[in-house]
Amino acid sequence: MTPLSIAFLPLTDAAPLIAARERGFAEAEGIALSLIRDTSWATVRDRLVYGQVQAAHMLAPLAVAVTLGLSQAPCAIAAPFKLNDNGNALTLSRELAAALDPDLRRRIADPEATAHDFAAAIGLHRRKPVLGIVHRYSSHALMLRYWLGYAGVNPDRDVSLRVLPPSLMTQALRLGEIDGFIAGEPWSSVAVAEGIGEIAAVGVNIWRRGVEKVLATRTDWAESNPDTLDQLLRALDRAAAWCDDPANHADLAALLARPDYVGQPADLLRQALAGRISLVQEGEPVAVPEFLVFHGGAANFPWRSQALWIYSQFLRWDMVEPSPEAQAASAGVFRSDLYRRALAGSGVALPGASSKVEGALAIPLAAASHQGSLTLSPDQFFDGKPFDPQDIPGYLRTLKQN
């Protein structure tokens, strides 16, 4: 058996890693998997960069940021497998949420109207709203910025963004230190269950196929250990498929509930797995299709176009200077080549392309695949603007028209 250590945070979307260890998928590939629970994304990043672990459960934008050397010395990161699409939600204090549409279902079903309602509420709040984000370079922060920007809100001027670990968001909200937060599950559901927050928006309704967490390794480790990496990706592919199967959700929720993993009630964890979310305390759960996707619709395939969408948002918010080198480095983080190598001959659908126009699909679409049968899921952004990775400047000009 090959020993392997992976760092993770207590989030529902760590499920494929936990299932790989606990349900034997890693062992079947000859891997003795150890999972190391951390509290903050900064710690996970540092464990990976300085070699304390061989791989990490990581925010997709953080993998790009580390490669580009944003906020620390650059370190080339490889992301050969996406652990999930979607899965986050924006939760506001009851005081701030009172300024939004009182129809809770309409709030999340119509992110355009809710964004405008939120923009109007800013000036009426007792202070500039303080919103918790889990990291400056997180999918959640980029999605929040995208949503706010649509309504003409400048996230660097009109609100205060405060970085907190996801598991501490509810405590900060309870203490009044923040007025809301955007984070992965189960932390929005925890805030709702405690009666201290209301869910105002869900990530899947902002971007139908929002890139979330990836499996990240140092590029030099990935290149030095190809066989071990292939074994790990095969194990994760089977684990992710197991996590997506509703027949396994009760078992999975019980696993995640263990104190060494997420440490929250199984019933609460199961909401996100089933796509039925309570928006307010004691409210009837609302069906949110594809709230969290582990495997279906090529969810695990690392599209380079998604890495470039992340780069486009870094440009939009002045987080990086534009350059051909930075653009190429960003695209190169998502290693579709390693994914294909590991899963060749497995029967898993392997997209023929590594890049596509993001946000262009309104209905499921059959796509070319090197093996198996591939159907891509709808992936539109809520504002209807597609992202063409071949024309990033043109895309950014359309966003300025908001």
Largest sheet strand order: 2-1-3-11-4
Largest sheet: 5 strands, mixed
**Total helical elements:** 18
Shape assignment: globular
Q: What low-confidence regions span 5 or more consecutive residues with pLDDT below 50?
A: none
Estimated radius of gyration: 20 Å
Q: How far apart, in Å, are the first and last alpha carbons? A: 54 Å
Helix content: 25-40%
Relative strand content:
15-25%
Mean pLDDT: 96
Structural class of the secondary structure composition? Answer: alpha/beta
Tell me the total number of β-strands.
16
Keywords: Cell inner membrane, Cell membrane, Membrane, Transport
Main location: membrane
Protein name: CmpA/NrtA family ABC transporter substrate-binding protein
Subcellular location: Endomembrane system
Describe this structure in words.
This protein has helices at 15-22, 25-28, 41-49, 60-68, 94-97, 104-109, 111-122, 139-150, 169-174, 187-193, 219-224, 226-244, 249-256, 266-274, 304-316, 324-333, 336-343, 392-400; strands at residues 2-8, 31-37, 55-59, 77-82, 85-86, 88-93, 130-133, 160-163, 180-184, 197-202, 213-218, 276-277, 286-287, 292-293, 365-367, 374-376. With 402 residues, the protein is α/β, with parallel strands linked by helices. The strands form five sheets. The protein has a five-stranded mixed beta sheet with strand order 2-1-3-11-4, with helices on both faces. It has a five-stranded mixed beta sheet with strand order 8-7-9-6-10, sandwiched between helices. It has a two-stranded antiparallel ribbon with strand order 5-14. Strand 12 (276-277) and strand 13 (286-287) form a beta hairpin. The model has no long low-confidence stretch (mean pLDDT 96). Its main location: membrane. This is CmpA/NrtA family ABC transporter substrate-binding protein.
